[in-house]
């Protein structure tokens, strides 16, 4: 059974920083792309950043230059360093991983961690 567990969310003032972490565990053979998504109240879930197994990254335009995604393949972890946070960054942040188990290849989600940025 695969689990993705996020941590690091919280309440921060505008201009502040937070670092999110996500650890994958279970019977994992390989992890392809990992990413962070967020969902603000009343809005659809959107991609924030993603990173391939070859460390190629992609960011939403709204976070470019402020957020940095990274991963540790040995530890099966992905991180999101968020700087210069804005109130519009508020939402539930979800970790996502495209990975392979003995059952095949699937996408998995974490339970989410709340990020609140006050003005």
Keywords:
mainly beta; 119 residues; 4-stranded antiparallel β-sheet; 7-stranded mixed β-sheet
Outline the secondary-structure elements.
Layout: E1 3-7, E2 10-13, E3 18-25, E4 30-39, E5 46-51, E6 57-59, E7 67-72, E8 77-82, E9 91-101, E10 104-109, E11 113-118
Parallel strand pairs: 2-11
Antiparallel strand pairs: 1-3, 3-8, 4-5, 4-9, 5-6, 7-8, 9-10, 9-11
Could you estimate the helical fraction of the residues in percent? under 10%
Give the termini separation: 40 Å
Q: Class by helix and strand content?
A: mainly beta
Nearest-angstrom radius of gyration? 14 Å
Shape: elongated
H/E order of the elements?
EEEEEEEEEEE
Can you give me a brief rundown of this structure?
With 119 residues, this protein is mainly beta.
What does this structure look like?
The structure is a single chain. This protein has 119 residues and is mainly beta. The protein has no helices and eleven strands. It has strands at residues 3-7, 10-13, 18-25, 30-39, 46-51, 57-59, 67-72, 77-82, 91-101, 104-109, 113-118. The strands form two sheets. Strands 2, 4, 5, 6, 9, 10 and 11 form a seven-stranded mixed β-sheet that branches. Strands 1-3-8-7 form a four-stranded antiparallel β-sheet, with no helix packed on it.
